[in-house]
Amino acid sequence: MTDTVGFLLGKLGQQVNVRFAGRLAPLGLRPRHCAVLELLSGGPLAQLELAKAIGVTASVVVDMLDELEQLDAIRRVRDAADRRRQLIELTPTGRELRHQTLSLARQNDEELLAAISPAEAAALRHTLGRIAAATGLIAK
Amino acid sequence: MTDTVGFLLGKLGQQVNVRFAGRLAPLGLRPRHCAVLELLSGGPLAQLELAKAIGVTASVVVDMLDELEQLDAIRRVRDAADRRRQLIELTPTGRELRHQTLSLARQNDEELLAAISPAEAAALRHTLGRIAAATGLIAK
DNA sequence: GGCATATGATTCGGTCGCCGAATGATATGG
DNA sequence: CCATATCATTCGGCGACCGAATCATATGCC
């Protein structure tokens, strides 16, 4: 059991999130917000698009955006072409926050991968990416 | 961000757990119970020992054990040497359940690793184990 | 031996993140 | 112009977890 990849992934993933959350806390962010900032860095998206991409329901997105709006990291803009939709766009503050989270994520990686060789780390990254893509477990 | 190992681990781990939970549901179990069954297969343990090993508080262990007791998978036995402690031991039913969960975990792995070569899978298992050990993220 | 203090299990209340159903506004097709 | 669909939002609830309080038992100290 403890030697299955599934178990290790599950437990490690959980712990990694906790650790990352600790790093993020000073910014007033939690891990889930990072994916949002990341996605928005490619350009504005509607809330339902965000929900799909992240893999949560629309109501969860509302909450996350409320929080990000509080931090002045995003803006909701009514889509002129379809006034039901809110287009979410990054503010300059949001862009700045995204850079910081990126840096924290890399810091996190360094700590996580300190015990293994760079080659092994690269292989790991590659393998995880393959699995994620193959199993469709991470929305692309 | 989405290319950091930490992010991939976190997201994948989460999803893997959800998937595993689905397989487990017919047995009336959830992922967290598996660790308990696994730990107990090595012999009886007190509840606080379980809590430490799993990384949750004592009150959570109480709940989990209540559920496992309901399924007749475990028994609570007062420690004669220290009557405050409950020694938790697997029943025959518990042992059987453990075998089933193990088989499900392996099935889960097969599906997860279908996209990569056996060699790559072995490397992955090895690397994850190293990281878990080095970072102390998984209680041993 | 008797008492203060520590420790194990348990209960209880609260928090957090998530979901699903209901709602209101807007769009779209007949 | 109305029926129906879709987007964002609100609301109630659930499951997993924590921390404080409680009760029984153990242990150290006088």
CATH homologous superfamily name of chain A?
A: Winged helix-like DNA-binding domain superfamily/Winged helix DNA-binding domain
Give me the count of strands of chain A: 3
Per DSSP, the total helix count of chain A is: 6
How would you sum up the global shape of chain A? globular
Largest interface: A-B, 52 and 51 residues
What is this entry, summarized?
With 140 residues, the first copy, chain A, is mainly alpha-helical.
Write a structural description.
Chain A is 65% helix and 9% strand. With 140 residues, the first copy, chain A, is mainly alpha-helical. The first copy, chain A, has one domain: Winged helix-like DNA-binding domain superfamily/Winged helix DNA-binding domain (Arc Repressor Mutant, subunit A, Orthogonal Bundle). Chain A has a 3-stranded antiparallel beta sheet with strand order 1-3-2. In chain A, a hairpin with a 7-residue loop joins strand 2 and strand 3. Chains A and B meet through helix 1, helix 2, helix 5 and helix 6 of A and helix 1, helix 2, helix 5 and helix 6 of B. Chain B binds a DNA duplex (30 and 30 nucleotides) through helix 4.
